[in-house]
Amino acid sequence: MEVPTQPLLRLRDLSTDIALRRGAVQALDHVNLEVRQGETLGIVGESGSGKTMTVLSIMGLLPTGGRVVGGEILFDGRDLRGLEAQELRRVRGVEMGMVFQDPLTSLNPTMRIGAQVAEPLRVHQGVGKAEARERAIEILRRVGMPRPDKIVDDYPHQLSGGMRQRVVIAMALIRSPRLLIADEPTTALDVTTQRQILELIDDLREEFKMAVILVTHDLGVIAGRADRVAVMYAGRVVETATTAELFRAPRHRYTEALMRALPESAESGRLYSIPGLPPDLSRPLTGCRFAPRCGFATDECRTTDVTLTGDAHAFACLHPVTDRATIAPSAAREPSASGAAKPILTVRDLVKEYDAGGAGLRRTAARVSAVAGVSFEVKAGETLGIVGESGCGKSTVGRLVAGLEPPTSGEIVVDGADVTTLDRAARHRMHRQVQLMFQDSYAAMNPRMRIDSILTEPLEIQRVGDSGARRARVSELLDQVGLPRRALERYPHEFSGGQLQRIGLARSLALRPRLIVADEPVSALDVSVQAQVLNLMRDLQRDLGLSYVFISHDLSVVDYMADRIGVMYLGKLVEVGPAHQVVRAARHPYTQALLDAVPTPDPGRTADAGSAIRGELPSAVNPPTGCRFRTRCPLAQDVCATEPPLAGGTHQVACHFPLRQEAAAGA
Amino acid sequence: MTRYLLARLGQALVIVILVTLITFVILHLLPGGAARAILGKEATLQQIASFNHEMGYDRPLWEQYALYLRRLVGGDLGYSFQLNQSVAEAINQRLPKTMLLSLGSTLIAVVVAVPLGVIQAVRRNRWPDYTINGLSLLAYATPIFFMGLMMIILFSQVWPVLPPEAPQGFTMAEVLAEPAGLVLPTLTLAILTVAVYSRYIRSSMVDNLNENYVRTARSKGLAESRVIVGHTLRNGLFPVITLLGMYLPALFSGALVVERLFNYPGMGLLFWQAALKRDYPILLGVTLLISVATVAGALVADVLYAAVDPRVRLKAARS
What we know:
Oligomer: heterodimer
Shape of chain A: globular
Strand order of the largest sheet of chain B: 1-2
Low-confidence stretches of chain A: 327-333, 358-363
Radius of gyration of chain B: 24 Å
Helix content of chain A: 25-40%
CATH topology of the largest domain in chain B: MetI-like fold
Distance between the termini of chain A: 45 Å
Shape of chain B: flat
Largest sheet of chain A: 7 strands, mixed
Number of domains of chain B: 2
CATH class of the largest domain in chain B: Mainly Alpha
CATH superfamily of the largest domain in chain A: P-loop containing nucleotide triphosphate hydrolases
CATH class of the largest domain in chain A: Alpha Beta
Radius of gyration of chain A: 26 Å
Strand content of chain A: 15-25%
Number of helices of chain A: 20
Distance between the termini of chain B: 10 Å
CATH architecture of the largest domain in chain A: 3-Layer(aba) Sandwich
Helix content of chain B: over 70%
Strand order of the largest sheet of chain A: 6-7-8-3-9-10-11
Number of helices of chain B: 16
Largest sheet of chain B: 2 strands, antiparallel
Low-confidence stretches of chain B: none
Mean pLDDT of chain B: 86
CATH architecture of the largest domain in chain B: Orthogonal Bundle
Mean pLDDT of chain A: 86
């Protein structure tokens, strides 16, 4: 692609502070970046790295207390900091467009889609009501919205997540901006929708000749979509290079560590995890900000201010990576040697239906079919991964197995006893065997209880030991999850996300369960912290002989963690088998589409466009008959209207036209 | 939408019937029965017997209740022997006066409180916010009789521009003929209401201004005034609907303290006098009226919500 020499946007020594009650956080420290027309710049970093603050500074949308304190924001040669308020609003409203992370909260809930999308036109170009509506329909059609002439009069809550994000994109594009800023545009979306949205942004960039800034924490997303990448850490750009160059040969030690922490690059069954936490930016810092967590740091790193050097491939590191790191998707863990082990959990024909609405006295006939006849086994010491997109029923399966909700029908056999037929007291005791670990541990803990009480509570409820024994058990738990004893005195809000996840794990371990149902345990964590938690979970499994049901939307994490994987679609288990076979030789078309949609941190790999699934997940109120995937399946035939059974040996699939035959046993 | 309305209306009706049942039971639990309560302690047994027969109080309970309901439907709330007029008539005389006072003060309060709350939210933690906050806290904490007294002292003693007493006219026309007399009671009530409302509006607007959709609106390069009026205000005013719904019963029950202070013959005064004289028919009649108003207030708030918030509308349409 031909790239004009003059950058459209150039940040020169941009510094931004956020005022606190006392002092200030130095959110950005001398950030230098540029982006040219027709080019996509990826900004990648973990939470708190300043990537979002950078784009908010450009857009002038800093949160309360936030202020640009130094440097220049040169847009088309003019410094935005010097512009008058009215002109600045015009530039922001006409020449720039921004796509936000959470499409639900980013739209006004009480304003019609059309009015929101066309508002920039009405304000900046004085377009009339009727014309604005026409233009809104036109741009909605352009971003691939089905039935745009109807959607235009709808309200945001009537749309799905993917459709809402299309609306946000349409809103940014209707002004034909020269710069499009997308801040984690797909983080809240499922992988198949993510793929559709990222492809849309790519297409539109070419069509409108825009410059795009793509902000994300996901190295996979960056690898597939950006021309150049800037890696940020603790308010600074630490490395910038073309995407291919960066992924082929990262130079900064932080970039390298970030890539090694990905589940895809697990080498010998253990993930590399970055020790420690990012620095506190409200205190003055000297030297390289990554030095305290870096294995290669010397005294020089801690004392001299390391600046970004180099032209095409710039990095701020005194001891850069010299050997070429290979980031290749590696084989997952060796299958655990529990082939003949007894199942700890057996689920047979599990069904869960909810009433759809039906307020008051009159029950409506419509029922949501959340889980529709799911059967599987988990053996002792084994991890079963359950993957699927939101709404597929995977979390419901987790809650049913953990005994939080009664199933509509079916059996859940834990350790030989069917939980659904147990009396209250027996079910109470069953909770000792099966425990749940949550995605958002902070929300799952009482904020007014100290860690001490949080960990002791399960023991008290189950009347385990006396108070001395409980104290000893709680200390033991802290040791197991690698937290200091001091933690007992503190409250949940004093801990970081990764630490909270450790505490959550400790709480589920308190009763010495044999099975832990972990529902998206690492989804809210940064890559480096995610690695710590995943490692811990595997260590504990080895030491304590635990079984896990590991529920996640993230295939690479499940691939790393699980011995076997079950894939769910709309309440059905469509495929189940050994992890490496499901991920590398998928038999169900849905599994294949899911795998193809996952962005991989490998710029060379291009996704096969043919396997992409289109459209939206059907409603679970009236799910399609027969194979539930047939409405979106590229291979669907008439016979798919009859339900395919889950069939096969160790690698089972529920499909009339499986993509491949089962691999020979033991392969 | 219609189905939702019908369902809510049905619920409201059930509650109202329950309320009538309770007032009916109370009427029968009165010491010596309704007859003793109405005719007084000196009534002879014969008088009581004939009264009971006349009122149907010697018939079976369910028949009496049916009779009671039929009278209620016909607008007959009972007869006050002490006022020597029917309860409906007594209420009829005073209710319009009370409504004039309450509606006037509420209207003023909303008109003043909305901009105040918005200014506070926009200038949060700066001097306009602190000033308004301090004043409204003061108004909120001041007992209403003291507030009324201060108003009388200020505006009819120190600076005698307004009469200290409300209009004493018997009919509405007579009351309306002296608008000056209505100013002080209306204002006294309004000040308190402003204090309550502006605090709600401030916190609701603050919450909404922190929402992501406001950031989206700003990203379109809208002027701040358009961001606030065009995007935030509508969502920020939802709590006011709840407040207004909760306030509806007060429109009917009247503001006892203010009516007493300014000697304004409204519902509050009626209820107070009835309580002093143990005028049970009046007390129960007014109670019933206020109960119905409470139910109606909740209903009105729900309907208003459905009208302004599309999310409620959809949920209703689905159910």
